[in-house]
Amino acid sequence: MGFLNDIEPLKQTALTELKAAPDLATLEQTKGAWIGPNGKFTALMKQLGTLSKEEKPAAGKLINAAKVELETALASRREELELKAALPKEPTDFTLPGRRRALGKLHPLTQVTDDIVRAFRKIGFAVADGPEIEDEYHCFDALNTPADHPARDSQDTFYLNPQTPDARPYLLRTHTSSVQIRVMEKQPPPIRIIVPGRVYRRDNADATHNPTFHQIEGLYVDKNVTVGDLKGTVEFVFKELMGDDVKIRFRPHYFSYTEPSYEIDFTNALVKKMGKDWLEIAGCGMVHPQVFETVGYDPEVWTGWAFGFGIERIAMLRYGINDIRLFYENDVRFLKQF
Q1: Which of 2, 15, 187, 213 minimizes the number of CB atoms within 10 Å of its CB?
Q2: Distance between the two ends of the chain, CA-based, in angstroms?
Q3: Would you give per-residue pLDDT tens digits along the chain (338 residues)?
């Protein structure tokens, strides 16, 4: 009975010391002194082996109940002391003015992309997306670009694995035109989409070139689509982006996936201020019949146009930026101007 009588006094003493611990360090020391491996209460528990079979159940029940109570008190006091430690050492004056966080802004390329998308949405275009790691079929073959075409030159493109008979070559896409193919493979006409996204080409970085840049392409497929529809759309979008005084012109060009193909020049007051009459801004054309046949469209029934341009170029013209590399340096002094 003497053993059982010791349990309650020891427990009360341990509870008193745990609750009185002034800081976390003292609390840990008190824990070790009582319920640690060499603690007083732990030593008491080890004496259970000396009891008779009749005494052990009652003693074990008392000790376990006391242990639970001590551990609860320990956790409660630790929570109180942790909260106390987290409080400021000096009193807080809540009447002082607060510190306002500086608000961030969208990157200039994001702003221009949003404006382009907004202009196209006004005339019923949806936004499409696709993988940046692309296969040769979607990036070249399906776009009527044969294997001997200069765009297939590995020096112009970032290939990701060797071109061997048993390994399908993948590459970082050189344009977002591959997404046009993927959309046409999945759905029948009519189609009216734009495809903004990051593209990659093996260019040496300078004021007007970068190995990574952003492009947006448009595709419209329906019955009786003409170059007139293309010109009207392009004119509307560039007036939305660059002002109502924009004028555009088409010049004959060559792209393997459009026929006929054109380069688009534009002019406005900004171009005149730069001392030029016209600036090249985009490429476009009517979708080549071979492209339609590849995706399963009947070129005798469906016609369409496609065009694309660089988002950086629009941003440089709009904001008067003379070096494309500024967009990627993440210099806050530059970015906060927008």
Answers
A1: 2
A2: 83
A3: 456 677 778 788 888 888 888 888 888 888 888 777 777 777 777 777 677 777 777 777 877 788 888 888 888 888 888 888 887 777 778 888 888 887 778 899 999 999 999 999 999 999 999 999 998 889 898 998 888 888 777 667 888 876 666 667 788 999 999 999 999 999 999 999 999 999 998 888 888 888 899 999 999 999 999 999 999 999 999 999 888 888 989 999 988 899 999 999 988 888 888 888 888 888 999 999 999 999 999 999 999 999 998 999 899 888 888 899 999 988 888 888 88
Total residue length of the chain: 338
Token look-up 């630790």 returns 78
For strands 126-127 and 191-200, give the pairing.
parallel
- Residues near 200 by beta carbon (within 8 Å), at least 6 away in sequence: 132, 157, 158, 172, 173, 174, 211, 212
> What is the spatial distance between Cα 188 and Cα 50, in angstroms, rounded to a whole number?
87
Question: Do strands 191-200 and 170-172 pair parallel, antiparallel, or not at all (unpaired)?
Answer: unpaired
Cα separation, 284 vs 303, in Å, equals: 14
* Of residues 223, 305, 218, the one with CA closest to residue 261: 305
Determine whether 299 is exposed, middle or buried from the number of CB atoms within 10 Å of its CB (0-12, 13-18, 19+): middle
pTM over 0.85: no
For residue 32, what are the CA distances in angstroms to 81, 242, 285? 17, 75, 81
Cα–Cα distance for residue pair 215/177, rounded to 1 Å = 10
| Domain ranges across the chain | 2-86, 108-335
Instruction: Name the burial class of residue 133, with classes exposed (0-12), middle (13-18) and buried (19+) by CB atoms within 10 angstroms of its CB.
Output: exposed
Token output for 252:
């004959």
Tokens at residue 299, please? 């070129």
Q: Which class does domain 108-335 fall in?
A: alpha beta
* Cα–Cα distance measured from residue 119 to residue 97, given in angstroms and rounded to the nearest whole number: 43
Residues 6 or more apart whose CB falls under 8 angstroms from that of 133 comprise: 160, 170, 171, 172, 173
**Strand 303-310 relative to strand 191-200: parallel, antiparallel, unpaired?**
unpaired
**Tokens representing 90?**
């000096």
